[in-house]
Amino acid sequence: MQNTHSTPAGTQRPPLTPLNRVHDALAADGRAVLDAASLAVLCGVQPQAFNAWRERWNDLRPDRYLRDGGRYRLRRHSCFVVRDAVVTLAPHRPHWQSLDYNALHGGIERHFEPMPADWIADLAWPALLRGLAGCASRLRGAQPWFVEAHPFRITTAGGIGRPTPEGAHRDGVDLVAVILVARAGIKGGETRVFDAEGPGGLRFTLDEPFSALLLDDARVIHESTPIQPLDAAREGHRDTLVLTYRAGGFQGPTT
Questions:
Q1: Torsions phi, psi of 72, nearest 5?
Q2: By C-alpha distance, which of 12, 20, 51, 15 is closest to 38?
Q3: Which residues contact 97 (CB under 8 A, 6 or more apart)?
Q4: Which of 6, 31, 81, 103 is surrounded by the most beta carbons within 10 Å?
Q5: What domains can you pick out in the chain, each with its CATH number?
Q6: Do 216 and 26 contact (CB within 8 A), yes or no?
Q7: Which pLDDT value is given to residue 4?
Q8: Mean local confidence (pLDDT), 201-208
Q9: How far is it, in rounded angstroms, from Cα 7 to Cα 135?
Q10: Sign of the CA dihedral with 158 first, then 237, 114, and 144 last
Q11: What is the pLDDT of residues 137-187, one digit of tens each?
């Protein structure tokens, strides 16, 4: 299916943050939105370096843990440590969140297939992790960052797909990056960000491949609305890469 690269009718354009204001926006508002060119500059790579990954989303695995009985989510999961600008692959581990942050799927160890070795060996991959680690360090101070990488595909199998079946939530980390990779044959998938302690918020639809939403997880909650197919006879999908940065260690039952 062909990727759409224009904002769906009836939705708001992403409120893009100038690259020279990203750190200020995260500090002031708890959020920043980057277009693909800005994300590439932030990470010191050419934009086409990210585009070369798009076929990777055709090789994700079904999520067996959806408690709503759905079959609409495919994913992989790998963990990394960024320390002094050096990116290291961490031993493979289950994904875990507490019930405080994920009332639907929290409190259990979820085991997913790792990202392929040749993907994480691509020089653009550690560049992406380093660039976003710089944002986390500006936000919380320079330190090692424990990064979980989640490539997701949400499909319209069964008629509807839910990017965030747990609803509006925080992730229990310090920085969250939601990177849009593709939208194909769908409507919906609107991003919503709300102040955790107040009424403020915004809503928009990420549409450009490798544009990114950066979030201070302590200050905001976020969700994406369900997707539906544009053509009921054709399955559509929404591909994203979610990266979470946490100080002090990975989340686990004892943390």
A1: -100, -5
A2: 20
A3: 105, 106, 107, 171, 172, 251
A4: 31
A5: 19-246 (2.60.120.620)
A6: yes
A7: 42
A8: 94
A9: 27
A10: negative
A11: 999 999 999 999 999 999 998 899 999 888 888 899 999 999 999 999 999
Checking if the pLDDT of 227 tops 60, the result is yes
Mean confidence (pLDDT) of the chain: 91
Q: How many residues does the chain have?
A: 255
Least reliable range by pLDDT among 119-133, 197-211, 216-230: 197-211
Residue 75, beta-bridge partner list: 61, 152
Which of residues 169 and 228 earns the better pLDDT score? 228
Residue 58 CA to residue 135 CA, distance in Å, equals 29
Residues ≥6 apart with Cβ < 8 Å to 251: 96, 97, 98, 172, 173
Return the structure tokens found at 71. 């079959």
The percent of residues above 90 in pLDDT, for the chain, comes to 76
The distance of Cα 101 from the centroid of its chain, to the nearest Å, equals 16
